[in-house]
Design a protein that fits this description.
Number of domains: 2
Largest sheet: 8 strands, parallel
CATH class of the largest domain: Alpha Beta
InterPro entries: Aldolase_TIM
Shape: globular
Structural class: alpha/beta
CATH topology of the largest domain: TIM Barrel
CATH superfamily of the largest domain: Aldolase class I
CATH architecture of the largest domain: Alpha-Beta Barrel
Number of strands: 18
Keywords: Dioxygenase, Oxidoreductase
Organism: Novosphingobium subterraneum
GO molecular function, one term: dioxygenase activity
Low-confidence stretches: none
Number of helices: 13
Strand order of the largest sheet: 3-11-10-8-7-6-5-4
Protein name: 2-nitropropane dioxygenase
Distance between the termini: 14 Å
Length: 469
Amino acid sequence: MSAFKGLKPILYGGREVWPLVEGGKGVAATNHMSSGAWAAAGGIGTVSAVNADSYDAEGKIIPQVYNALTRKERHEELIKYAIDGAVEQVRRAYDIAGGKGAININVLWEMGGAQAVLEGVLEKTRGLVTGVTCGAGMPYKLSEIAARFNVNYLPIVSSGRAFRALWKRAYHKVSHLLAAVVYEDPWLAGGHNGLSNAEDPRKPEDPYPRVKALRDVMRAEGVSDDVPIVMAGGVWFLREWNDWIDNPELGAIAFQFGTRPLLTEESPIPQGWKDHLRTLEPGDVLLHRFSPTGFYSSAVRNPFLRALEARSERQIPYSRVEAGEHTAQLDVGVRGKNFWVTPNDLARAREWHGAGFVHALRTPDDTMVFVTPEERDEIQQDQKDCMGCLSHCGFSSWKDHDDYTTGRLADPRSFCIQKTLQDIAHGGDIDKNLMFAGHAAYRFKQDPFYSNNFTPTVKQLVDRILTGD
């Protein structure tokens, strides 16, 4: 079919594909069905290799149950589940693609055992995976691993500065396998975002100058203009990116679609999640800092997220001795008398206590948050059940190397990300779990393509995207 003006196929992994990339979404929100179909439609499908699902002999999903007693042993179980699941997903996606398009895998560098998982998956899928996208952290070792398995690599960055650091430290040695650089807009993309301390979460910046700056860095380092920059975050209609296509200032550009593929026949997310996407309004996706990774991330502002916002608002600073303005002894929510707060905060604490938030939990920042007995029990149980799904976890103080602890107090303002993502992806309550989405998700409600509850197949979606809509 003829594509939107100026959009041409690119050569990737030895064949022509459309410069349209399916975003590889975290835990089980992208799987073999969606990725295989995206590749079969001529694009680059991305299997999520983050704790992906495996199947039993009857084709049923194997629940990821952890039996080991220690976190370290549960972490080993997690790595095994992750490798088995991703290998299974890649094989199935490759079969569905039928030799068309390409299959990538996506890993988060900040996931627990990321390197072991990536090596384990690539070892068992030789010849099936064309490239690896990787973000959430600074994946310096990505190029070295790609070289070992002879696959392309596509780092995910949100600034030219981040790319320069990766290039100078490691990537210049494996320049021939750098297939593309994914620019993930920190204000628009769903999931974990690379907002730096220099950037204001409340002040989105226009992506064009940032992508041009990234291209300038790539040129300065000798990277060819034929290596595409993949624009990720906020991409809906290609016609809105008209002046990016075939633009000599930017060099080759490809586009990543993360949110739109959620609402397709092949998308593995549960029906309730799909239905909810149709109801969102502008502003319903919140850029927040509750993730145990420490990164900003974007998710639907549902009751789960609102409860975390409210929990952080029931928070007061304290000191262990009477000092400065901390002249009042805290007499609710804590055992012992060695907690000193301001008189004003003492009044607030008593009010929360009276409203049922009777337990004060300490945070690593010398503050306390007030929670109900149910919340406290859930927080403590989740922290106890930690299976080490991150390289560093703020919620449980787990670290996946050396002495296995971050050395910081576990943070009750956060949550167990593995539990909630597994739950929502497998049919759990959409109000009680984290629901990742990009900030353009409100457009499902506005886009006539989705009217009358129409849900496209992946092929119909890709064909539609190629028209400019």
